[in-house]
Design brief:
Elements (H helix, E strand, L loop, with lengths): L7 H4 L18 H6 L26 H18 L3 E5 L2 H7 L11 E5 L5 E5 L3 H7 L6 E4 L5 H11 L6 E4 L5 H10 L4 E4 L1 H8 L4 H22 L8 H15 L3 E7 L20 E10 L2 E2 L2 E6 L5 H20 L6 H17 L11 E3 L6 E5 L12 E4 L2 E4 L3 E4 L2 E5 L4 E3 L13
Parallel strand pairs: 1-5, 3-4, 5-6
Antiparallel strand pairs: 1-2, 2-3, 7-8, 8-9, 8-10, 11-12, 13-16, 14-15, 16-17
Helix pairs in contact: 3-8, 6-7, 9-10, 11-12
Pfam family, one: Creatinase_N
Protein name: Peptidase M24
Organism: Stenotrophomonas terrae
Length: 430
């Protein structure tokens, strides 16, 4: 998925029924009907082979979280950071196992360079916080009429870091970061990026396994939906099929869907769209397994594509393969983008960003977009365990676009994709 590919509201599945000829059950009734054994005949044939994979998602264990905190503490020492504050969000989940929404009430964790994590939360949330945390049990509560930033400052002063260096996790809202900084006027507040990204950007075997499961599931869902497409369907109809297919797998997922000339914009369009034979359809989205996400794009055609669509598809596939072959440990991230972009430019769809209008890829893990980015000028080097989208595209204004996306992971001496590439426009699922 390209950066901010689609409006999140548009990507939610709001459609509650499928069109005639595809299936007859409302999406909201699918789970209960399946449980009662009444829904099989109502599903498109291509979906009946989809089975739940939820039990295959092995959750991240506490030993791994302990290792993550230990690595964070080593990185703090390397970068001269005494403690890191992490608020609600994916990094809190990554290090502690907590799933917490962000609001005006401060909840977060202080990771010290030495010692156990200390949690700060509203006092009335103490029990719920203790239920969720997987590491330590030191919870400091603040009452509704108290200043939570003063409490964070007290914790750090008690650690001896009143004049030290505090790393602020990048997703912490400005008002909260400022509140903590104002309560610690003699401390130095710096970005915690070297610590947080230094841990999260390299995936473990357990993380890679969850991502692979999610990506394989997304690909299976796309194939099942592709086989159920009918002329005249709208993008909402197709999204309804996607929702039903994901319900079969037991994983939560979604996708943006764009048809025909609207595929010429990487972000697609909110305008009404109808499926016509011979025109491209782009699926772009993913699902979650054990908290880790997939991100796959497929360009398909119902019926026979014309020669130009076929030509562009083959160029994009060649560019995706060139990026895969260029990626290996020690290679600059910008060079992987360059490998794909050269194929597209040399094929007459350049220069630069003229038709391939976005970067090649982004990091991925718990979040769909993470560190780092495969983009021109990025001199950071690839390391084993890093994961990225490999998603070149060609977009011809007012006509059509083609994008192919699979998740690339860096191995000890090369790179590989988590899912098989499209074989051709006629066999998009191999």
């Amino acid at each position: 998925m390209h950066n901010d590919h689609s409006n999140p509201a548009r990507r939610r599945f709001l459609r509650t029924t499928l069109i005639a000829g595809a299936a007859a059950l409302p999406v909201s009734q699918l789970a209960s009907a399946q449980a009662a054994g009444r829904s099989e005949d109502a599903l498109p044939a291509s979906m009946r082979g989809l089975k739940s994979v939820a039990a295959q998602a092995v959750p991240i264990g506490n030993d791994e979280r302990i290792a993550r905190v230990a690595k964070a503490q080593r990185l703090m020492a390397e970068h001269g950071i005494d403690a890191v504050f992490i608020g609600a969000g994916s990094s809190l989940t990554y290090f502690t196992g907590m799933h917490w929404w962000d609001s005006e009430r401060l909840t977060g964790v202080i990771l010290p360079r030495k010692g156990e994590p200390i949690y700060v939360t509203p006092e009335f949330e103490r029990v719920r916080t203790l239920e969720q945390i997987k590491l330590g049990n030191d919870v400091r509560g603040w009452q509704e009429d108290e200043d939570p930033y003063a409490l964070v400052a007290k914790v750090l002063r008690d650690m001896g870091h009143a004049t030290g260096t505090l790393g602020m996790e990048e997703a912490v809202p400005y008002f909260r970061a400022k509140g903590i900084a104002d309560a610690l006027p003699q401390a130095k507040v710096v970005p915690a990026w070297p610590v947080v990204s230094g841990c999260r950007r390299v995936k473990s075997a357990a993380e890679l396994a969850l991502m692979k499961l999610a990506n394989e599931t997304t690909l299976a869902v796309y194939e099942a939906v592709w086989k159920a497409l009918q002329p005249g369907m709208t993008e909402q109809d197709i999204s309804g099929l996607l929702a039903m297919a994901y319900a079969r797998t037991g994983l939560k997922g979604d996708a943006s869907v764009n048809v025909g000339k609207y595929t010429a914009s990487p972000h697609g369009s909110d305008k009404p769209q109808h499926l016509v034979e011979g025109t491209p359809i782009i699926f772009d989205g993913g699902c979650r397994a054990g908290g880790y996400t997939s991100d796959i794009t497929r360009t398909v055609v119902l019926g026979q594509p014309d020669d130009e669509i076929r030509k562009v598809f083959n160029i994009v596939l060649k560019a995706q393969t060139a990026a895969l072959h260029a990626a290996r440990p020690g290679v600059a991230m910008g060079d992987v983008d360059a490998a794909a972009r050269k194929v597209i430019s040399d094929s007459g769809y350049g220069p630069d960003y003229r038709y391939f209008s976005h970067r090649l890829g982004h990091g991925i893990g718990i979040d769909m977009h993470e560190w780092d980015y495969l983009v021109r000028g990025n001199t950071h080097l690839l390391e084993p365990g890093m994961t990225f989208s490999d998603e070149p595209g060609i977009y011809i204004p007012d006509r059509f676009g083609v994008r192919l996306e699979d998740i690339l992971y860096v191995t000890e001496d090369a790179a590989a994709l988590m899912t098989p590439q499209s074989k051709s426009i006629d066999q998009p699922f191999g």
